[in-house]
Structure formats: C-alpha cells, structure tokens
Amino acid sequence: MSIRIPRVIGKSNNVGELVAIKEAIENCPLDEVLEIKSDSQVSINGLTKNLKKWEDEGFLGVENRKLFRATVSALRKRKARTIFTWVKGHAGDAGNEAADILAKEGTRKPIPSLVEIRENTALLLPGAKLQSMTQSKAYKMIRQAKMKKGRYRDKLNRRATARNMELAKEAAADDNGELPETSRVWKSTRHNDISRSVRFFLWMLIHDGYKVGKHWAKIEGHEFKATCTHCGITETMEHILTKCDAPGQEKIWELASELWKLKTDEDLPRPTTGQIMACATTKKKDTGTARLFRILISESAYLVWRLRNERVIQEKPPASLDEIHNRWLRTMNIRLKLDCALTNAVKYGTRALKKSLVLKTWVKVLKNEVNLPKDWTREAEVLVGIG
C-alpha cells in the first residue's frame, strides 16, 4: 500500500508514520494478531507508554493529536493483540526498506489519497481527568474548546495574522528546507530557548497586535502616529525592526552579525520579519548553533522594539551608538549568565539545563575563551566576547 498524504493532514515524517500505522490497523481483520514495525519512536511511544498520560490530559499540546486519537480508537476497536516493534531506520531491515520504497511511490502519485481521520469517541476518554489538571492546562483546554467554534476562530484568523503566518512559514521553509505546519510555528514562539517577554513579543508580532502605522491612520487626532518620526514614512513592524534609520536596528543587527561570525565564520544577513517570527523553528544540525540562533535573533529583535518604544512612546532622546552597543551586550550576557545558573542540578533538578548544551551554545563567542577552563559554567567573569 502506498499513500500520498493530503496536505491538509500535515507534511512531516511523523504524520506519514502515523497514517501508515492507522491504515495498517484499519485494514487488518479485527481478530488477527497484528505486528507493526516502525522506525518512529514518537509514534510508538505515543500509542503505548505515553498514551495514558496524554489521554489523562486530554491530548493537550500533543502534536498531531487528532491523528493520534483516531489511531487509538482504531486500536481499541480490535479484538486481537497488536504488537509494536521499533526498528532502526536505514539499517537494512527488509520491511523498513520496503516501507521506504512504498512511501516514495506515494509521493509520486498525481493526486492525494483519501485518508479519513475519524475518531470513535465511544472508545476514547472524553475531556481530561481532574487530578491531571493545573490552572494552566485548564486554561489551554478552554481555549482549545473555544477554537472549535467558528465565530471565535474567525476572530483570530484575521487577514493580517494569516499573512504574517505565511511569511513566517516561508522563512522557516527557506531556513530548514521544509514548510512547517502552522501549529509548529505557534509552538515555536513558546520554545524554551525564548525568554518569556520575547515569547509574548513574537506572538503579538505574528498577530499584528501592536498598534503601529495604519492602526492610527483612522483615529481622529492621532493620525500623526502612523508615520515614523525619523524616516517620514508609514510605520510597519518590518520598517521598525529591519529598515528604520533611527539609531537602533542597524547597530543591533551589526552586533548580531559580528557574534554570529565568531560562532560560524559566516555573516548573518539582516533578517526579515518572517525570519524573526520563525526564528525558533530553526533546524540547524548543530544543537548549540541552533540554540544561539534562536537566542540571538529573538533577543536582538526585541531590543530593537524596546528602543523604538523608549524613543517614540516614552519620548526619550534617541540612544547613542555606544549605549545601544552596551545594552545589546548586556542582553546577551544576561542570557549567558542565566544559562550558567540553570545548569545547577541541585537547585533545579530535572528542569536544569545540561552543561553540555550550554557549553555548545556559547563556544567560540566568549571573551578570553582560550584562558577559560573546560567547564566555565561556574566562572563568575565569563562574558560574551565582542565589544
């Protein structure tokens, strides 16, 4: 069986593996033992050891939750045993190699296959268990339920949001070589590598929630606020973050590029708004490089925004180039110090950052790095090395 998965279902390896598992279950007689061999640990774990926890929490935050629920209900309909076996991909397993061939055949089909994602609600637990709930999880479930209502969904699906989401997805595709799902972009704005204040900034940026430019054009007595006071043109977030001639964005992106060159020996092109919105979706092969990219782009963009607000809203004098330099450097050093502090396993337990990840993130960008010990995470004077 070869399947071309409809784009509406999703476009990722995990989606493909899950659809294949679901179709195998639905096409096997209910009273025959079925053994499923897969190289997808995510799919197998989701249908076995993670299932109870996910179901207790109403599949909250689970990627491809509808597909998982449909597969679980198909499993529970069966009368005979179903056995899951993990196999290493591309390791010579005959069945796995044959599955890869069929998957490639599916991608070459001229039209998508008919794949039904149907949940048998009688075979699934409704909602979530009360003892599994926290205030945060309850809020998210309420929001999830609201999103099923067309009127609420339409409010959020404004044209500006949809347009910005497309920009973010296209930027992510350029960086990673594949178009991410909308849900993945939203999830990336809450990535652990993004600081809390910046998470809200990215969320608002995608939603076009900041009142700049055209938002003021039709408000009597406030029309002048639509224009950039420095450049004399209508303000947009793209203009503020990447094009404005006022002191701020140009210097900050120069500093970001300088740090990036230390890390990768490559220049960092001035990012677009789409690249800023999608910065946390990066799939750069080296985990430390990917992590520094998320921190560097998100923190730099947020500092540009803060400097603009100080100048325009708080009516402070424009910051000098030296002040901008020092504030950007302080921002990076704060993140570095926070990383070092969060490696304390005694204090933070399982939530502590791995020292190896922190070392990989900041290697090549530290001041006097050659004189630092191999593990510098407890050194008081470790600093970012430009300036």
From TrEMBL:
PROSITE patterns: RNASE_H_1. Gene3D superfamilies: Ribonuclease H-like superfamily/Ribonuclease H. It catalyses: Endonucleolytic cleavage to 5'-phosphomonoester. InterPro entries: RNase_H, RNaseH-like_sf, RNaseH_domain, RNaseH_sf, RVT-Znf. Its EC number is 3.1.26.4. One of its GO terms (biological process) is DNA replication, removal of RNA primer. Coiled coil: none annotated. It holds the Pfam family zf-RVT. GO terms for molecular function: metal ion binding; nucleic acid binding; RNA-DNA hybrid ribonuclease activity. Keywords: Endonuclease, Hydrolase, Metal-binding, Nuclease. It is an enzyme of class 3 (hydrolase). Belongs to the RNase H family. This is ribonuclease H.
